[in-house]
Amino acid sequence: MATAESDVVRVSIHTRRPVSDVWSALAEPHSLGRWFGELDQPWQEGRSGRIEFGDGDFFEVTTNEIVERRLICFEWRFLGLGPLSRIRWTITDLDGQARVMVEDGDPTRTKAEADQLVEGWTDFFQRLGSYLETGQSTRYEWRDEIDGSVDLPAGSSDPLEAETLLRWLPVASDGFRPSWFFIVDEEGPRRFPITDWNPGAEKLTFAVNVAAGAPSTFCTVTVEPVGAGTGVRRLRFEHTNWRGLGIPDRKALLLRRRFIMSWITALEHARHHASAQ
């Protein structure tokens, strides 16, 4: 069963496994890592932690409520920057079998975003069901895209305006238009060629060559209002084609992780610049 309203997404599955098995799959970090993601420490009310997915993606998580063998409630933000979502996992006993439901609430999301979440949670719960039946890991390997967002306060300047853009996006110009995307991390600074730079009032697109001789990756940056009359805007990016590079997965994943950290830093800079105005 799945439903999508603009503020709450609900997805559930029925499994033949007993409540005790389902509870272990949700509550024990080792079991959770077999179908979902790696929880860095056990669930505990009031504790903050992180769920990582092995490809650089993660959620920062705060546990709100735990009822043994019945429910886990928590809040999370994707990459530690995205909109706050309130998640509720509930287990219901069905005469020795069980139903598992997730309720994912965020009053700022659009109907299209809710529909995407239905697809995402349906996939995760199918993986949960398969794990419960087989005991084998059903985790996905890694995503083709990197994406994320941050909300900017009302009254801040347009983040895609040329002068503002260069304050937060790690790009450099050749004198005419941006030609390089920069990463600076523990492995040192590195620059990557940019092509097809196409700015606009509400959307910026460009390509980045992340590996010599490989196809380009593609970036889209957008800004859109959050809610009616709030003045808050959501800065969002998507960086795709990581599986289409034609290089070994290990190398692609290393690059993907480095770019995720660069994008996180860029969003933090955008938020800091907007808040300082």
Automatic annotation (TrEMBL):
Gene3D superfamilies: 3.30.530.20. It comes from the Bacteria. CDD domains: SRPBCC_CalC_Aha1-like. It holds the Pfam family AHSA1. SUPFAM superfamilies: Bet v1-like. Residues 18-133 form the Activator of Hsp90 ATPase homologue 1/2-like C-terminal domain. InterPro entries: ASHA1/2-like_C, START-like_dom_sf. Belongs to the AHA1 family. This is Uncharacterized protein YndB with AHSA1/START domain. It comes from Saccharomonospora amisosensis.
